[in-house]
Amino acid sequence: MEKRAGAAEPLLLPELSGGHSRGGASVSSAVFNLSTSIIGAGIMSIPAAMRVLGVVPALVLIAAIALLSDVSVEFMLRYTGWASAPPSYAVVMGDAFGRAGAATLNVFVAFTTAGTLVVYLIIIGDVMSGSAGAGEEHAGVLGELFGSRWWTGREFVILVTVVVVLLPLVLLRRVDSLRFTSAVSILLAAVFMLITMGIAVYTILSGTAKMPRMLPDFSRLSSPFELFTAVPVVVLAFTFHFNVHPIRAELSKASDMKSAVRISLVLCSVIYAAVGLFGFLLFGDDTMPDLLANFDSSSGSGVPQALNDAARLSYALHLMLVFPLLYYSLRVNVDELLFPGRRPLATDTRRFVALTAALMAAIYVLAIAIPSIWTLFQYTGSTFAVCISLIFPGAMVLRDVHGIAKMKDKGMAATMIILAVITSSIAIASNIMSSIGGDAEGVRAVACC
């Protein structure tokens, strides 16, 4: 139910345009970009979530969250055709709840994307230069190969990554321009999955595999409520809603977006399930919140270190290629917050470049200043992400300003919100109690994004 056709003009940011389908992008291009938006650092947390829940509940949770994500995106798209301005998530929220609703969405997306991008750089730095925490040191790939040098330090390595790799990608003028890098990123995620599977098969054949638990081990939990801490982890792993409109805007047929979303969710669910299962099989109850840390030279998996390094490098490269898609949403939302009512960012090259440079500099400084932000991110899935992916879309349906929602839609929306609020509240309370009690084991399971 579309209300306007739109103009055919080149765009820096298609979600700020007046139309929907000028670029002629294909469904496969949308699938690559959507899948890249979904599979970020969140994949590293799935094995740890499986460690908390056990294999069967974790697989059920992945399928359930994927289904709810499909429903919530369908709600968003249904109201997009009635948008009173060029469509974006913030515009649709603004139609339902006014300027306050749009601003709230902008803030939540900005915090979620900025924090996630900082985590990407931290992980890249950890992989290449090593990390230290909780009394344990994990060597980086460069340190293992060349030893400690000034050019193997995390500050220099992250700076080179930002300037040489990431900056050219975030300066591309169209989201669809990233379809090739998105395709490569999905390939790299598949490579990581296959390497993890290969190492797991090797441990099975050598008799060193750690049989994963099918169900939770309550003896390892300080409280049964700690099981709920895995829910926000998976919710955050499926939070891609802020990239729906930019990708949809460049499709040849906007109606193809539903198919692209469903294909992407199925593909990513399979990858999540496979990495979670094989990662948990490989490391068992020693699985760390950041799975990549398990692949350093002290992993003890008994496989050649070159294979461990290949696993880490493939995913570090994947994160580099995911970075630009999240950055697009961060830049748009910050621009809407700082410059409301100004001409679209697409038509102001000076503002576009200045905002891009400022945000990149801020993300780099945070990644260097904060060696680990897992503690911060243990609450992200329970707050910002759950609102973006479940609560806000459900609230649009309950608000139903255009009178197009059916009773079953409102029932689903209410159920989705109630489940999100209950599970997130329990997860937050469990995290707080575990932190106060000094029991970090259960808490660290949600310290991923």
Average predicted local confidence, pLDDT = 76
Q: Kindly report how far apart the N and C termini lie.
A: 35 Å
Beta-strand residue fraction: under 5%
Order of helices and strands: HHHHEEHHHHHHHHHHHH
Which structural class matches the secondary elements? mainly alpha
Number of domains: 1
Task: Determine the fraction of residues in helical runs and give it as a percent range.
Answer: 55-70%
Q: What's the CATH H-level homologous superfamily?
A: Amino acid/polyamine transporter I
CATH architecture: Up-down Bundle
Shape descriptor reads globular
Number of strands: 2
Low-confidence stretches: 1-22, 439-449
Largest sheet: 2 strands, antiparallel
Number of alpha- plus pi-helical segments: 16
Give the CATH level 1 class: Mainly Alpha
Descriptive account of the structure:
The chain has one domain: Amino acid/polyamine transporter I, CATH 1.20.1740. 65% of the residues lie in helices and 1% in strands. The chain is an all-alpha fold. The chain is built from 16 helices and 2 strands. The protein has a two-stranded antiparallel ribbon with strand order 1-2. The longest helix has 41 residues.
Give the key terms.
2 strands; Amino acid/polyamine transporter I; globular; 16 helices; disordered N terminus; two-stranded antiparallel ribbon; 449 residues; mainly alpha
Furnish the topology, listing elements before pairings:
Layout: H1 27-38, H2 46-53, H3 55-80, H4 89-129, E1 131-133, E2 136-138, H5 141-146, H6 154-170, H7 179-206, H8 230-237, H9 244-248, H10 257-283, H11 305-338, H12 349-369, H13 374-377, H14 381-399, H15 407-437, H16 440-444
Antiparallel strand pairs: 1-2
Helix pairs in contact: 1-7, 1-10, 2-3, 2-8, 2-10, 3-8, 3-10, 3-14, 4-6, 4-11, 4-12, 4-14, 6-11, 6-12, 7-10, 7-11, 8-14, 14-15
